[in-house]
Amino acid sequence: GSVGGEVPELKFVGAGHHGHILSLFVKSLASPNETGNNANATSLSSSQMQQQQPQLAIVGDIMRSVSVVEYHPHHQTLEEVARDYNANWTTAIEMLSTDLYLGGENWNNLFVLRRNSSATSEEIRCRLDTVGEFHLGEMPNKFMSGSLIMPSSSSSVGAGGGGGGSASNSSGSSLPLSPSGKNSMGPSSGPRNSSTSKKTSIMIGSETLYATVDGSIGSVLGLDRASLAFFSTLERSMTRIIRPVGDLSHAEYRAFEAERRLHPSRGFVDGDLVESFLDLDRESIEKVVRDMNEDGRWDVDDNVGGPGVDNAASGGTNEEENEEDLGSSGGGGGQDRLLSVDDVLAMVEEISMLH
Question: Which end of the chain is less enclosed by CB atoms within 10 A, N or C?
Answer without folding.
Answer: N
